[in-house]
Specification:
The protein is an alpha+beta fold. The protein has helices at about 5-15, 65-80, 100-105, 115-125, 130-145, 155-165, 165-175, 185-195, 200-205, 210, 225-240, 245-250, 290-300; strands at about 40-45, 50-55, 60, 150, 195-200, 215, 220-225, 255-260, 265-270, 275-280. It folds into two domains: about 5-60 and about 200-300, 3-Layer(aba) Sandwich (Beta-lactamase), CATH 3.40.710; about 65-195, DD-peptidase/beta-lactamase superfamily (Beta-lactamase, 3-Layer(aba) Sandwich). The strands form three sheets. A five-stranded antiparallel sheet has the order 2-1-10-9-8, with helices on both faces. Strand 9 (about 265-270) and strand 10 (about 275-280) form a beta hairpin. It binds 6-diazenyl-5-OXO-L-norleucine.
C-alpha cells in the first residue's frame, strides 16, 4: 500500500497546479469573494494519524456538509420516526429545487436537499429556542472534532439570510403542508447559521471519524452513535450526498460523501479514514470540481472504494 502522507501531498500538489478550477458559488454573496486558487486535503486515518496538505488549516464555509451532523442529531431526537417527516431517496434534482416538493405534498425526498435539511432542523428545534438548538449543533461538531475553536461565521449567516429567498420559499411551502412544526423564521435562522459553520479540512476530517468507525471516535474510543446508525448515514451520503451529482460521485469515487457549496466535501472510507477536501470552485451540479477529482485519485491509490479495487 502506498504511503498515505506521500499520496496526500502529491494530490494536493497536482490540484494546486490545475487550471480547471470550476466556479465559486455567487448566490451567497459572502462566498463569491473566496479565492478559487485554494486547495486543502486532510485524511484522518484509523491508526490516529492525520495526513494534511495544501490549505488544510484554512477555515471555509461548510454549508451543506453541516447536514450530515444535523441528520445525526435529529435521528438522536426522533429515531426512525424522522422518516415520517423526510424521505431517503435520491432526488435527481438540484439541491434547492421546489418542483418535487409540490408533487410529494411538502415531504422532502431526503435529508440533504435543502427542503429535507429544513425539516431536519425543525426536528432539532422541537420546542427549543433557535439559540439553544444552534448551540447543540455546534457542541456536537466540536465534540466530534475534539476542538472547541470551531465557530459560526456570522458574515456568511447574515449574507445568506439577506439573499436566501429560495429557502424562504421552500420553508413557507412546507409550512403550508403542515410539515414544519416551528415558526418558519426559527427554522430558517437556525438553518442559515448551521450552514455558516466554518471549519478547516483538518477539523472536518476529525469531526467525521465516527462515521468511518461504526459510530465511535477511534481516538477517545467514545461511542457517538450506534454502528447501525452510522452505516445508514453513510448509505444516505452515498445515494444523496451530492444531489443530482450523486451517481457520478459514486461511479468515480466510490465512497459515501457530502458536499457543500463552499467547495468542501466530507468523504468516508469505512474502517479506513475520514477525509475532508476543499476546493472552492464548483461543477455545474454545485459540487466541488477539484474536490471530487482529488477524492477519485485518493480512493484509487489507496484502494478505498467501497466497490472494490
Ligand atoms: O441553503 C443553501 O443554499 C446553502 N446554505 C447550502 C447549499 C449547499 O451547500 C448545497 N451543496 N452543494
Amino acid at each position: 500500500m502506498p504511503q498515505l502522507d506521500a499520496v496526500v501531498r502529491d494530490i494536493a500538489e497536482e490540484m494546486s497546479r490545475r487550471d480547471d478550477r470550476g466556479e465559486v458559488a455567487t448566490y451567497i454573496p459572502q462566498l463569491a469573494h473566496v479565492d478559487p486558487g485554494q486547495f486543502g486535503l486532510a485524511v484522518a486515518a484509523a491508526d490516529g494519524s492525520i495526513a494534511c496538505a495544501g490549505h488544510s488549516d484554512t477555515p471555509f464555509s461548510i454549508q451543506s456538509i453541516s447536514k450530515v451532523f444535523t441528520l445525526t442529531l435529529a435521528l438522536g431526537v426522533a429515531g426512525d420516526q424522522l422518516w415520517k417527516r423526510v424521505g431517503r431517496e435520491p432526488s435527481g434534482n438540484a439541491f434547492n429545487s421546489i418542483v418535487q416538493l409540490e408533487l410529494e405534498q411538502g415531504v422532502p425526498r431526503n435529508p440533504f436537499i435543502n427542503a429535507g435539511a429544513l425539516a431536519v432542523t425543525d426536528v432539532i428545534l422541537s420546542g427549543h429556542p433557535p439559540r439553544e438548538a444552534l448551540g447543540e449543533i455546534l457542541r456536537f461538531i466540536r465534540f466530534a472534532a475534539q476542538d472547541d475553536s470551531i465557530h459560526i461565521d456570522e458574515h456568511v449567516a447574515r449574507s445568506e439570510k439577506a439573499t436566501g429567498f429560495r429557502n424562504v420559499a421552500l420553508a413557507n411551502f412546507m409550512k403550508s403542508f403542515g410539515v414544519l412544526q416551528n415558526p418558519v423564521d426559527y427554522v430558517l435562522g437556525t438553518y442559515f447559521h448551521h450552514c455558516a459553520i466554518a471549519m478547516s479540512c483538518r477539523q472536518l476530517a476529525l469531526a467525521g471519524r465516527f462515521l468511518a468507525h461504526s459510530g465511535r471516535n477511534p481516538d477517545t474510543n467514545c461511542s457517538m452513535i450506534s454502528p447501525e446508525r452510522a452505516r445508514r448515514i453513510n448509505a444516505l451520503m452515498l445515494t444523496c450526498g451530492h444531489y443530482d451529482g450523486s451517481g457520478e460521485f459514486a461511479y468515480r469515487v466510490g465512497l459515501p460523501g457530502k458536499s457543500g457549496v463552499g467547495g468542501g466535501i466530507l468523504a468516508v472510507a469505512p474502517s479506513h479514514a475520514s477525509i475532508a477536501v476543499w476546493a472552492p470552485g464548483l461543477d455545474p451540479t454545485g459540487n466541488s470540481h477539484l474536490g471530487r477529482i482529488a477524492l477519485e485519485k485518493l480512493a484509487r491509490k489507496m484502494k478505498w472504494s467501497i466497490f472494490g479495487e
